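Listing S7. Sequence submitted for prediction.
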Amino acid sequence: MKNGSPSQDPAPPIPPPPPPAGMERVQAAEGAAWPARFVLCLYAVGFLDFFGVSMVVPLLSLHVKSLGVSPTVAGVVGSLYGILQLFSSTLVGSWSDVVGRPYCLLVCILFSALGYFVLSMSTNIFLFAVARIFVGIFKHTHSISKVLISDLVPEKQRLLVIGHFNAAANFGFILGPPVGGYLTELEGGFHLTAFVCASIFILNAGVFWMVLQHERKTHGNEWVTINKKKDMLSTEIKNSLHLQSLSHDAAKYSPPTESSWTQVISVLKRLDSIARSDLWDLFLVRLLMSVAVMLYHSNFVLALEERFELKPKLTGYFISYSSTLGVAAGFLLGPITRLYQHNTYAILLRSTVLTCVLLMLYSLLESVWAVVISSTFLAFSTTVGRTCITDLELTLGGNEASGLLIGIGQSVSAVGRIVSPLISGIGQEFSPCGPPLLGGLLGFVAVLIMIMNKSRYSGTRSTKLKST
């Protein structure tokens, strides 16, 4: 604006002045199609990720045994993945806040492919350990994809879209094990399966890169940068815009230009902001429910065999049935969120209570049909609960460090994977139903924590990360 007349020069990129009303509508219309295509691409990323991994993971213990190492060495090497995930989840999530989600996701996919390629050549325990180290550090494609989705979609649609993403990924987990089992029966089966898995990750990276390049040519080098807390658009345009943009730090396509030291400092500042926040009770809820669900799954096959003399083959079919229900639960999140008027806290609380009740019924009832019914509804409640707690973490923590929040959540789940085998072993000393019964008690503690913090959880982003 100059001398009372509108200027025809393009607006400077920093700081962007509010564009004319007509231009706002054009930008909103152009931006709405771009995330829709990209979210579909992320669905494909999640599907290929779980499809490739599920081909290999069930075969790892057999392969380690074939290498001729002692059970102790096999156990130590097998724990590498969980231990590395414990630390790398938080760091990689925070790094994605610094360098940008697309760049971080692409790096994670490529290095995961490298890990599985090394695994395909593992003829000794050293190469096997190297492969698991690569995967343990960089296998965060699923969590980074969810952060990217949370950046792209409006808050009210986030729970629905993440649920669909989980459903697409779990569908890959259903198809992967049969394919891996078929390839294993061929000559050099495990090595062939791991190589195919690495090739799937390369394909995944290629698909993601091509979509990025296509959208870069269409929309320029950056995403539509409209931050709900910083933009100057009118209320009318805000309401019509079906896109929640990335923050400036996470919005860039191009590889990071900051020095490595600057990136490290930025990551440490974000870690400090989480350490001084009051989100730890929510992370405690995640930990308790992660352990509770893992205790249920830890001895599922053994418990059904001891309690009802079910053969492992029938139990395998039952596990596939539960996985299929988990996929269906992802598509039911839309009607559920509308029923509860997008109140994530209410959905999470009820799904957690339902999980506790079902774990108790599964543990105490001596009828096989009671076990089938409780396990059926557990597939729904656990899927909904996992999705809701991720959404609640992002809602309470805000957009300042969403990658870090997701990373810490994954680290908390990694702690659950480390401690649940120990708790499960102690529970099995008393009864085959001991682990799920302990899981139900832990879930009850999680419910109490949520009820005690109801005023904060049910608010609208009342928790803010403290600035550094």
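Caption to Listing S7: primary sequence and predicted structure tokens for the chain studied. The CA atoms of residues 93 and 234 lie 33 Å apart. DSSP finds 20 helices and no strands in the chain.
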